[in-house]
Specification:
By secondary structure, this protein is mainly alpha-helical. About 35% of the residues lie in helices and about 5% in strands. It is elongated.
Length: about 170
């Protein structure tokens, strides 16, 4: 079918050796095939009925022995950092994704995150957070600058970007 109407019908007695390209179908055409061979492996919905397919399964012990699984990755992370948990990692990752989305929508970097020189939003390291807490007013100034949008920083009174040609 093309555009809702039948473009070309290939009759059952047509040579089956021809490739589909032989029929010069238009781009975007829908092709509907009906297999009339009663001995075909697709007969009686064999390719459509998923209950006829044997499902893959593993026991907990087999999964534990496998390398390259999420569980294996979590164990490796826990060896490096005993405080690591998949739940904590998932929560922190979701917060990072949200911070990146927030920056894309508002141009503002959320508290606890910073922008690297290549423009990537990352979580502030623990050292950065501790420095902000110990430096009092300096950290307030840095945090307020982080929470300003790109437009506010580029076009404030300390910037020359807000000046237009011919203005004094």
């Amino acid at each position: 079918k093309s555009g809702g109407s039948i473009y070309y019908e290939i009759l059952p007695n047509t040579e089956s050796e021809r490739m589909l390209g032989y029929y010069n179908l238009p781009l975007g055409a829908n092709v509907h095939c009906i297999d009339i061979d009663p001995h075909s492996s697709s007969a009686n919905g064999a390719y459509e009925d998923t209950s006829l397919v044997q499902k893959f399964s593993l026991t907990e012990e087999e999964y534990d022995k496998r390398k390259g699984t999420l569980r294996d990755w979590g164990r490796q992370k826990k060896e490096v950092d005993p405080e690591f948990s998949l739940r904590k990692h998932a929560r922190e990752h979701a917060q990072l994704v949200e911070a990146r989305r927030f920056y894309k929508e508002s141009g503002t970097v959320k508290d606890g995150f910073e922008m690297e020189s290549d423009g990537t939003i990352v979580r502030c390291s623990e050292n950065d957070n501790n420095q902000h807490q110990h430096h009092g007013s300096d950290s307030v100034k840095k945090n307020s600058e982080k929470n300003r949008s790109v437009e506010e920083i580029e076009f404030d009174s300390d910037s020359i970007v807000h000046l237009s040609i011919g203005s004094r």
